[in-house]
């Protein structure tokens, strides 16, 4: 399968649409990002449009890396073509990109010219560009674009005949722009296929799609599978009106469909952030792949599937593993009234606090009730419920104090049903001694599990540095989990025992 040829138009189409077009230093920074992505061609600008753009094109041509095609736009007039050649002719592989409409509507109502005039104008311009730049650089190429090709359904035979002559005049790449997206992708692609089938096999067919109806990416991807090789894309989908085909979306879509994409995909996310900052065009939160919410799940069903497949390359509710495009964040589990137990479990577990799925089930209705009033909850709000209902369980037992008396002897003071009890216990450590003291007071319980976790600085003001988790056997033989946190590890153990007792003696 042929490799797609990525022709980036950020520095021309993208830049011309900005409220504040980039200065040379900014263009150089974007150019460096394109180098990191490993694009095959860059349209650096429209040299005849201004002295500033001419100088930028000339500078960027000097910066080109090996085998990069440096392209400059020109109308079908000699001064534009001459300007393009002077700006980029010294590049290793320069390309003059000539364009003219062959659309019946545009020729009649915008140019006010007859079709034959436009056809001859295009052929003559391509021939002039070819003859002129070949005198400067033998590696030079000519590209011709049929502006508003999407509007050429009714005169497609005329367009094809003209393109055949344009190829004979020296054009090696024919670009077919959907300058304004008006129809569904398949209708446009059928038009493109007619050109592909009519032109010689060695002619490179290119596609340049605008996103007026939101289908530029789909059209470009399907265009590749229909025989288009060159894909004209723009970083972050910048461009006139609703923008151009988004570079990242096309690259990843082709990758997902088994195409060997010659792009450094792991540079996509970093590049998107940089371009957004430099263009002052924010990435909207639901933007595919790179948006802040592109990895967010709030539906309980989606969260459950996402959590169960989070370590797999193929996720239940994501198109790629985020690291493919250089994202170091992962799927975001947000809690709303539409979420479920899996979200509660994941959020608390990710915060470093142990929880069972049964406990998450118990907490879910409580958290949902809060969310119904407040909307999406942050992790701390969910942890508050966890602390209140799992760690700070109120019941018949109240720990007063537990202290080391001597050697292996410990004194335990507590209340049961508001009655004060004092008991002594012996053991290899505080945990054993506390259980022994409880046994001596008539509350014997068997310990089946114990673990202590180191915690980060506590967010809730207790200064805790450790969490103890213990399991005691309940009256029916079930294991009851007790948890507690404290900056004193011995006290955390004892508090965890009392946490479990309050669950057993309800």
CATH H level of the largest domain: which superfamily?
Aldolase class I
CATH class of the largest domain: Alpha Beta
Helix content: 40-55%
The span between the termini is 69 Å
Rg from alpha-carbon coordinates: 34 Å
The structural class is alpha/beta
Largest sheet: 8 strands, parallel, barrel
Strand content: 15-25%
Fold blueprint:
Blueprint: E1 5-8, H1 10-16, H2 24-37, E2 41-45, H3 51-62, E3 69-75, H4 78-88, E4 93-101, H5 104-111, H6 115-136, E5 141-147, H7 156-168, E6 173-178, H8 185-198, E7 204-209, H9 216-225, E8 230-233, H10 247-256, H11 268-279, E9 296-297, H12 300-308, E10 332-333, H13 341-350, H14 357-374, H15 379-391, E11 397-406, E12 409-416, E13 419-426, H16 430-440, E14 447-454, E15 466-473, E16 479-486, H17 489-504
Parallel strand pairs: 1-2, 1-8, 2-3, 3-4, 4-5, 5-6, 6-7, 7-8, 9-10
Antiparallel strand pairs: 11-12, 12-13, 14-15, 15-16
Helix pairs in contact: 2-3, 2-11, 3-4, 4-6, 6-7, 7-8, 8-9, 9-10, 12-13, 13-14, 14-15, 16-17
């Amino acid at each position: 399968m042929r490799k797609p040829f990525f022709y980036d138009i950020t520095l021309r189409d993208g830049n011309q649409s900005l409220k504040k077009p980039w200065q040379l230093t900014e263009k150089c920074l974007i150019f460096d990002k394109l180098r990191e992505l490993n694009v095959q061609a860059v349209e650096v600008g429209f040299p005849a449009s201004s002295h500033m753009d001419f100088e930028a094109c000339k500078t960027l041509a000097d910066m080109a890396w090996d085998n990069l095609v440096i392209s400059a736009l020109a109308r079908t007039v000699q001064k534009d073509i001459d300007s393009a050649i002077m700006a980029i002719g010294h590049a290793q592989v320069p390309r003059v990109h000539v364009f003219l409409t062959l659309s019946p509507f545009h020729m009649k109502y915008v140019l006010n010219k007859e079709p034959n005039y436009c056809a001859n104008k295009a052929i003559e311009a391509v021939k002039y560009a070819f003859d002129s730049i070949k005198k400067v650089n033998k590696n030079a190429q000519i590209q011709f674009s049929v502006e508003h090709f999407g509007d050429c359904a009714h005169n497609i035979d005329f367009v094809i005949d003209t393109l055949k002559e344009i190829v004979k005049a020296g054009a090696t790449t024919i670009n077919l722009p959907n300058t304004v997206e008006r129809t569904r992708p398949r209708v446009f692609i059928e038009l493109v296929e007619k050109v592909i089938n009519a032109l010689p096999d060695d002619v490179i067919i290119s596609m340049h799609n605008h996103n007026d109806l939101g289908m530029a990416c789909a059209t470009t991807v399907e265009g590749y599978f229909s025989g288009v090789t060159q894909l004209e894309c723009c970083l972050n989908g910048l461009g006139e009106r609703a923008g151009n085909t988004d570079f990242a979306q096309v690259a990843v879509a082709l990758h997902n469909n088994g195409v060997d994409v010659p792009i450094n995909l792991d540079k996509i996310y970093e590049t998107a952030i940089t371009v957004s900052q430099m263009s002052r065009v924010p990435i909207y939160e639901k933007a595919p792949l790179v948006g802040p919410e592109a990895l967010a799940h709030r539906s309980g069903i989606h969260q459950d599937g996402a959590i169960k497949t989070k370590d797999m390359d193929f996720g239940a509710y994501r198109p790629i593993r985020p690291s493919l495009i250089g994202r170091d964040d992962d799927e975001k589990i947000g809690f709303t009234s539409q979420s479920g137990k899996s979200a509660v479990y994941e959020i608390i577990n990710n915060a470093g606090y142990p929880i069972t799925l049964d406990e998450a089930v118990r907490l879910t209705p409580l958290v949902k009730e809060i969310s119904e009033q407040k909307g999406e909850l942050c992790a701390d709000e969910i942890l508050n419920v966890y602390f209140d209902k799992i760690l700070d369980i109120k019941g018949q037992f109240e720990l007063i104090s537990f202290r080391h008396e001597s050697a292996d002897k410990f004194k335990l003071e507590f209340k049961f049903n508001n009655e004060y009890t004092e008991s002594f216990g012996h053991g290899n450590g505080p945990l054993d001694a506390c259980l022994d003291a409880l046994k001596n007071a008539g509350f014997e319980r068997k310990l089946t599990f114990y673990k202590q976790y180191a915690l980060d600085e506590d967010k809730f003001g207790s200064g805790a540095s450790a969490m103890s988790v213990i399991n005691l056997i309940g009256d029916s033989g079930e294991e009851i989990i007790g948890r507690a946190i404290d900056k004193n590890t011995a006290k955390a153990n004892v508090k965890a025992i009392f946490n479990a007792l309050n669950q057993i003696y309800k």
